[in-house]
Amino acid sequence: MTPLDAAQLDAADPLAGFRERFVLDGGPAAYLDGNSLGRAPRATLDRLERLYREEWAAGLIGSWEHWVDLPTRVGDELGAAVLGAAPGQTVVADSTSVLLFKALHAAAALRPDRDGLVVLGGDFPTDRYLATEVARARGLRLQEVVPRPTEPVTAEQVRAAVGPGTAVVLLSHVDYRSAALADLRAVTAAVHDAGAVVVWDLSHSAGVVPLALDADDVDLAVGCTYKYLCGGPGAPAYLYAAARHHDRLVNPVPGWFGADDVFAMAHEHVPAAGVRRMLSGTPVVPGVVAVQEGVRLVAEAGVAAVRAKSVLLTRRVLERAETDLVPVGWQVATPREDARRGSHVVLSGPGAREVVDRLARRGVLADFRHPDLLRVGLSPLSTSFAEVDAAMDAVAEEARRP
Q1: Residues carrying an active site annotation
Q2: How far apart are the C-alpha atoms of 193 and 371, rounded to whole Å?
């Protein structure tokens, strides 16, 4: 694990050039939180300046001629580059929470004769909060499927949890704590075998794990764009809905942008054809164009290449953890098999919160999760192997402090 090893890896990295396309000056010494917020692409800052100066300041209301279809246009770009989705099935809008609320209601409406909603035990809090509220509002029975610690949920576990009364199953593709990566195709098939609808949260996989939502027969999916898609803090989320469901999708938050004729100002809401019916209010234009720039970076690199580097980066963190941290009482809380983890590594150890705080004072930004988890989030387009080595040196030093 010498600096020369990292230098050799960086020299051989086909994505190394992408690092310079992010703003690095003035940032931390090492950034291990790319699974929470990606670095800022230089192209995004340039694009936003043009948006404000030329399209807003100079173009004013006339710019709405090309802004009005941004949610679907950028959705199609995201679908093609990241989701494995044909055009007309993805929109960029709202937040992940709002879109998840919409997706759950719409999914339940597709199975009106069923009353079960299955969620992942220990999933991200918002997912569980929203599932609980949708179940309450629609009179559904809420049931949990609980995977084994540090392991992804399996098709077998899902089969055991679903039945003829199950309407919807909500699952995260990558566990936000352990980085355990589920077999999306197999689990989706298990849900469909029970006649239920699946909603996937792709927040920790889109942009860093190859996806094929159309080919894998996914019903609905949502996710954020400020992690591996580098859309910026609070950037709009995305919703995918398979075309086969469009004519029966019900948006529980109907608004003018999801209407058949946006500018008709009709007395009654008539939903648009296709996935655009899942839109509600006016899109946040700067947010959507920022997402577009991030998606274009990922499209240029190719998700397969991003995934290949992600595997190498996470593997390196795991190797360093085994060498430097396990001997002093730390544990690895992430699957060691490459195919079973996303792009972050979770380490569990004594005083994890204090270690993360001390790292921050050294300019090494990592992430703490209760009760004793240190997350190392690796965004392949902006993270170098030398940066990872320097960061893990610091982690090892702080973990060994009394």
Answers
A1: 124, 201, 226-227, 375
A2: 37
